[in-house]
Specification:
heterodimer, A: about 450 residues, alpha/beta, 24 helices, B: about 475 residues, alpha+beta, Vanillyl-alcohol Oxidase, Chain A, domain 3, 18 helices, binds flavin-adenine dinucleotide, binds iron/sulfur cluster
């Protein structure tokens, strides 16, 4: 039902969503409040509150759209608590495009609603200052790394000095950084034998700082499977964190920059190893639908974007032969579906297929592998309490599975689960699926 | 009420303030359930223990505030919607399976346990909980008890009341007591049966002892497509007349197929006007025999496409297409008004034709999905609640369908209850004396004025005027907070 979005959809009142990015009424009125999404929602499972459920959040959108209420701090609070994990979208029989709705709602909140000063400062620092700027990220990354390696971190933790720093207890959320960053410099990694496919690789903003070795592993695994990998130099952050937080304009700028970078050279696919970036790039067409210059190019990039696990499963990968068993004992591995892989991209089988193919791995499912771990991009910084509750829930489920390793597919999830397990005093390792596959390939090489 | 009331202050002494809801905009998410109706509650409280519930009841009493129990809010007759400013008491946090007694095949659960999760909890023991409402992935056992819920597999094995042995309730004075059997045998009247299906008007259910049964040895799930709803309906009437009682006999029509095909890709033939989903279960030999008979009857009535689910995955797809059909209707229209009328299955063919004719006459789309085996119709009238003319038309169509059911010797509700939705139609089937006799039950438990006010029984205006006027008024009023 197409409705003029400025006119309220019912009654005589004007909509209280205003500005350029408004959630589409036809999206929200697809919700028939059947409640089928309730049990998929991590925040509802934790609180039992309707306002922290997908159905409740959509009901609040409808009420604002119908002009029945202003956008109040309480309402924004419920929307902010949403992890945008999109578990609800997958189970919704009515096909409510929840991810799109919430992104647009957040964008609207950012234009219409006045946040308190503290909230504003925390958000601005990340979205407009750091993420879009690669050099700045490198520099800050360098600072963080120095800080972590110099032992200052331990001192700071002991004295709680960081708590006094602006941004409060930010320190304990800082991930450990890799020793060397993954630098995109237009390099090309060539396979030894026949070239089966040519791809471009996204380095990503967080992953290339925190998990550079995994990106190296990605290039090795691809090359081993006959894939030529090109890493465009002019690429930057994909814009995912911005888009999810309602910072759609800066996200669009970042998307345009990346589209230019990835369309410079003709490739068969654009490979993404971080699930969050992959899902955003697959939706570039939505993000830039109203940009006459970029709409078509965005659709092209979206169409060609492939998650690494998805790509390997489609292409057919060389069966790994190196065993990960130690002293004859299989390595027990479980898998956490990263929300942006399992829900947003609906890719659940390929990572499991990869894990199951590795010799010496005993694969076990854990309970609630499709429930968000609480990382959710910047969520872990802004909604700390809920994020930690979900982290605890996750570490409990991981431990209950009896696995020694939990594998996953996204940097945020790796960092969150590492911290949650550490807090719980558990020694379970967190690894990327690709790292395990790479390790098996390497072991095979070493023994030959 | 944009300031905390004295009632809210008192509630916050018992339950954490995060789980006492009172801001007008926060209450917006408790004004609806799964039905088309809506109304604002006075406050909402979401406790985490029986002790808290007992205290809440006492506080509510002190403030003369009535209480409405609420499960997942998937009810389709407005049972969990608050009238007269009642406090909604949501049981979503009491969600533990407390005990599974494998030997005696009994489980004791808290009321907020979701139906499907109970099923998953007992499956490893080779057991199942039979009542399987289509909403089972969301609705709670407490809500099932409240509405005496049914489901596709209740055809052969009976509805909720046949599977609940006993329960703990909190009465209107805050007393906690056990009704019925199992956990503790209590001599005297079987009050359990009285409370099941009482739609939250008598007490708050806080624990339920349910009967479990072994999973069947064999299951066969079959789908038959037909070129007309009448042919499918005649097949159902014949299956029922044959004496075979399949586990489930479900039907969906063309409009429903259009909603579920893009959602679940069950692969129904494009020209099918109706689909029958039949499941037989039990001992291996019986299943084979019954399946053969069902196939024969479908072929006799000219099924255009026949198949049996090859594996569990296909069976699940077929069931998802049926159980999630209502939700999928959101792809066709923003709202559906589902009429839960029941008719003798032998009258299916003519009644389905009449419903089709009504849809043409009123020019309003009606999608049919039904528990065909026991004649439980679920015509879904599609409309847009933002358009007052459409709301009115939908309500009129609903009333006409209920009248049709009563005319052929049927009933107003198969499984969704009366609630707010059908209270105006009760005089169609009950005399004033009947209604008065029933109304005496509530005061007998001291629950008058305490639990779920304004439900089930027709108001004076409804008796004298248009049965759906009150709903119409609520749906079209400009409820700004
Ligand atoms: C898509 C869809 C499909 C459905 N399919 C079916 C079906 O196949 N069969 C069927 O029978 N129903 C069906 N329903 C209706 C609904 O799911 C059932 O009525 C269900 O039992 C309601 O459970 P709930 O937890 O959502 O309860 P609610 O809707 O929250 O409450 C229902 C009633 O029970 C009372 N109640 C709830 N909890 C308690 C408690 N602890 N103590 C006392 N009273 C309580 C409430 O006051 C209310 O009157 C369907 C609904 C939807 C949306
Ligand atoms: S499952 Fe979909 S239609 Fe149903 S309540 Fe959730 S979002 Fe709405
Ligand atoms: S996106 Fe995740 S957190 Fe947000 S409403 Fe949906 S299920 Fe809940």
């Amino acid at each position: 039902m197409a409705t003029d979005s400025r006119q309220a959809s019912s009654g005589t009142r004007p909509s209280n969503f205003r500005g350029p990015d408004v959630p589409a009424p036809e999206d929200m009125y697809k919700c028939v409040h059947c409640g089928f999404c309730l049990q998929s929602c991590p925040t509802y499972l934790e609180t039992g509150l309707e306002a922290e459920s997908p159905r409740g959040r959509i009901a609040l959108m409808k009420a604002v759209e119908e002009g029945r209420t202003e956008i109040t701090p309480a309402i924004v609070g419920h929307w902010d608590k949403c992890l945008q994990c999109r578990a609800c979208e997958v189970v919704c029989p009515s096909g409510v495009p929840y991810g799109r709705l919430m992104e647009a709602t957040r964008a609207n909140v950012e234009t219409v609603f006045k946040r308190g000063f503290k909230q504003r400062r925390a958000r601005n620092m990340g979205f407009n200052g750091v993420l879009p700027n690669t050099k700045r990220l490198n520099r800050i990354g360098g600072m963080f790394r120095f800080y972590q390696n110099s032992g200052l971190q331990t001192v700071a933790r002991k004295t709680r000095a960081v708590r006094l720093a602006p941004g409060g207890s930010l320190e304990k959320f800082l991930p450990r950084l890799s020793d060397n960053f993954f630098i995109a410099s237009g390099q090309i990694i060539r396979p030894e034998g026949e070239v089966r496919a040519r791809v471009a690789l996204l380095g990503g903003c967080v992953m290339r700082l925190t998990h550079a070795p995994t990106l190296d592993a990605v290039t090795r695994v691809l090359a081993r499977n006959g894939v030529e990998v090109y890493v465009p130099e002019t690429q930057g952050c994909c814009g995912a964190l911005n888009a999810h937080s309602g910072e759609r304009e800066s996200a669009r700028d970042m998307a345009r920059k990346n589209i230019d970078a990835f369309l410079e050279v003709e490739t068969d696919a654009i490979i993404v190893a971080a699930a969050g970036c992959g899902s955003t790039m697959k939706e570039y067409d939505d993000l830039l639908a109203n940009d006459p210059e970029y709409a078509e190019k965005a659709a092209d990039v979206a169409e060609r974007t492939r998650d690494i696990h998805e790509f390997l499963a489609e292409l057919g990968f060389e069966a790994p032969t190196g065993s990960l068993a130690t002293k004859g004992k299989d390595l027990k591995v479980t898998y956490q579906d990263s929300c942006h892989l399992g829900h947003a991209q609906q890719i659940t089988a390929p990572p499991r297929q990869l894990l199951n193919s590795i010799p010496g791995v005993e694969f076990v499912e854990m309970e609630e592998s499709l429930i968000c771990c609480g990382s959710a991009g910047t969520y872990s910084l802004i909604e700390q309490e809920m994020s930690q509750r979900l982290g605890r829930r996750k570490s409990n489920n991981i431990v209950a599975s009896g696995a020694a390793v939990v594998a996953t597919a996204n940097p945020g999830c790796v960092i969150q689960m590492e911290q949650a397990l550490e807090r719980a005093g558990e020694g379970t390792q967190v690894r990327y699926v690709i790292d395990l596959l790479d390790e098996s390939y390497q072991i095979a090489d070493d023994t030959n | 009420m944009s300031e905390k009331s004295a009632l809210v202050h008192d509630l916050e002494q018992v339950v954490e303030p995060t789980h006492v809801v009172w801001r007008p905009e926060d209450l917006l998410v408790y004004e609806y359930d799964g039905s088309i109706d809506r109304n604002n509650p006075g406050a909402v409280v979401v406790p985490s223990s029986v002790e808290q519930i007992s205290e809440i009841i006492k506080i509510a009493r002190k403030h003369n505030a009535p209480v409405v129990p609420r499960g997942a809010g998937t009810g389709l007759s407005g049972g969990a919607i608050s009238m007269e400013g009642a406090v909604v008491l949501a049981l979503t946090r009491l969600n533990k399976v407390l005990e599974i007694d494998k030997e005696n095949r009994v489980a004791i659960v808290e009321p907020g346990v979701v139906n499907l999760e109970l099923g998953q909890a007992v499956a490893p023991y080779g057991l199942q909980y039979v009542p399987d409402p289509s909403s089972q992935s969301a609705c709670t056992i407490g809500g099932n008890v409240g509405e005496n819920a049914g489901g596709p597999h209740c055809l052969a094995y009976g509805v909720t009341t046949n599977h609940v042995l006993g329960m703990e309730v909190v009465l209107a004075d805050g007393t906690v007591t056990w009704l019925g059997g199992d956990a503790r045998e209590v001599p005297g009247y079987d009050l359990r049966g009285v409370f099941i299906g009482s739609e939250g008007t008598l007490a708050v259910v806080t624990k339920v002892a349910v009967r479990l049964v072994p999973q069947p040895e064999a299951i066969r799930t079959m789908v038959a497509a037909f070129s007309s709803v009448e042919a499918a309906s005649e097949t159902v009437a014949d299956i029922v007349a044959s004496g075979v009682i399949p586990g489930a006999v479900e039907m969906i029509d063309r409009l429903c197929i259009e909603a579920v095909e893009p959602a679940f890709h069950p692969g129904y033939p494009e020209d099918a006007q109706a689909i029958l989903l039949v499941e037989v279960d039990g001992l291996r030999e019986t299943v084979a025999e019954q399946a053969e008979l069902v196939e024969e009857l479908c072929r006799k009535h000219g099924t255009t496409d026949w198949r049996t689910a090859e594996d569990e995955e296909e069976r699940e797809t077929l069931w998802a297409s049926r159980k999630k059909a209502l939700g999928a209707l959101g792809r066709l229209a923003p709202n559906y008004y589902l009429i839960d009328g029941v008719i003798p299955p032998t009258r299916l063919p003519e009644t389905m034709s009449k419903i089709n004719a009504l849809s043409d006459e009123l020019e309003i789309p009606i999608a049919n999905v039904l528990h065909a085996g026991d004649g439980n119709l679920h015509p879904c009238i599609l409309f847009d609640s933002r358009q007052p003319e459409q709301v009115e038309k939908a309500l009129i169509a609903g009333g006409r369908i209920l009248e049709m059911c009563v005319e052929v010797g049927g009933a107003l509700s198969g499984e969704h209850g009366i609630g707010l939705e059908k209270q105006g139609y009760l005089p169609l089937v009950f005399t004033d004396e009947d209604l008065e006799a029933m109304a005496r039950l509530k005061p007998a438990f001291g629950a008058a004025g305490m639990f779920n006010p304004g439900k089930i029984f027709p108001t004076d205006e409804q008796r004298e005027g248009i049965p759906h006027a009150a709903i119409m008024q609520r749906l079209t009023s400009d409820m700004v907070i």
